[in-house]
């Protein structure tokens, strides 16, 4: 049987995970963003001595093919990537390798797929890694993260047109290894952890129109080291790690109904992975298959099928 075609979400439900052709590079603690029909996967740790990478891989979501493109100007791990205006932006991250990778950076990098070139932009005010980011209304929002092991509640906002940063109100809970997603004109900041406190089920939403945070119902699963992507009205949260191992459970917040529901478990549970959405599917890209320093080339897609199908 051939692969199931992606369908408009209004006539579909997210069902099961399907294996995709593997990525070229095995790694963990990556960032990922989609521009047109391709996911760009940046940085992370390599299995070769747990070294930090500047590597950028372009994964064609339509064909399942992959190639290496121009590397970042600096090697980074725990750095989120977001797409805006046909470009990829990489925010902050850690520049160290191995267990010394806990001093955050302030850098903001932009990659132009058409020219295959990187540029450095105005650094953000707060140095940090293991943060999350989202692009919304001509601005990039950078939330949470940590520096030297201290979790942050920081929200900083980059104006793409002026190349300037501003400061937003702090989150309700300081945390790192969290995930961001954008839906219905708002920034969703999900789960994460803090040293000595473990993983959280916390979900918050920032509304740029009111400049305020709103607490959402808790997630079902406490998790850190995660990824998220938006498909239609659903914000899908996947992956993570805990003392028992990597987390298979996947859940979605419906922005219309305001509730969480469980989705199909990952085929290959991972942490430090990337996630993008494309044509009604969520793609889980690379990441570690066991807590700590582990690595994979795994790519899986959560496909959409018609609600009437079995």
Q: What percent of residues are in strands? A: 35-45%
User: What is the string of SSEs from the N terminus onward?
Assistant: EEEEEEEEEEEEEEEEEEEEEEEEEEEEEE
Tally the structural domains.
1
Task: Give the uncertain stretches in residue-range form.
Answer: 1-12, 306-310
So how many helices? 0
Average pLDDT confidence is 92
The percent of residues in helical segments reads under 10%
The CATH H-level homologous superfamily: Kelch-type beta propeller
Shape: globular
Let me know the number of strands.
Answer: 30
Query: How many strands, what sense, and barrel or not for the largest sheet?
Result: 4 strands, antiparallel
Structural class, judged by helices and strands? mainly beta
* Order of neighbouring strands in the sheet with most strands: 1-30-29-28
The CATH architecture designation is 6 Propeller
Distance between the termini: 15 Å
Q: What is Rg?
A: 17 Å
| The CATH topology | Neuraminidase
């Amino acid at each position: 049987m051939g692969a199931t075609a992606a369908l408009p979400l209004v006539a579909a439900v997210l069902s099961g995970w399907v294996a995709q052709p593997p990525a070229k590079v095995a790694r963990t603690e990556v960032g990922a963003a989609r521009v047109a029909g391709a996911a760009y996967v940046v940085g992370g740790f390599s299995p070769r001595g747990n070294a930090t990478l500047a590597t950028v891989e372009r994964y064609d979501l339509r064909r399942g093919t992959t190639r290496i493109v121009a590397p970042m100007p600096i090697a980074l791990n725990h750095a989120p990537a977001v797409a805006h205006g046909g470009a990829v932006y990489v925010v902050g991250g850690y520049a160290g390798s191995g267990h010394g990778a806990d001093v955050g950076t302030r850098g903001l990098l932009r990659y132009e797929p058409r020219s295959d070139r990187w540029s450095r932009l105005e650094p953000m005010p707060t140095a940090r890694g293991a943060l999350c980011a989202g692009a919304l209304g001509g601005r990039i929002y950078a939330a949470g993260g940590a520096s030297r092991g201290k979790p942050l509640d920081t929200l900083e906002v980059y104006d793409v047109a002026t190349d300037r940063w501003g400061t937003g109100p702090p989150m309700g809970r300081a945390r790192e290894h969290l995930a961001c997603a954008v839906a219905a004109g708002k920034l969703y900041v999900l789960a994460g952890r803090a040293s000595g406190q473990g993983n959280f089920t916390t979900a918050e939403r920032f509304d740029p129109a009111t400049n305020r945070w709103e607490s959402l119902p808790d997630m079902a699963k406490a998790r850190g080291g995660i990824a998220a992507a938006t498909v239609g009205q659903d914000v899908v949260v996947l992956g993570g790690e805990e003392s028992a191992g990597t987390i298979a459970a996947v859940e979605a917040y419906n922005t219309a109904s305001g509730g969480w529901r469980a989705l199909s478990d990952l085929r290959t549970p991972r942490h430090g992975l990337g996630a993008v959405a494309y044509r009604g599917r969520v793609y889980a890209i690379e990441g570690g298959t066991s807590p700590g320093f582990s690595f994979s080339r795994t790519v899986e897609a959560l496909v959409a099928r018609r609600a009437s199908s079995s």
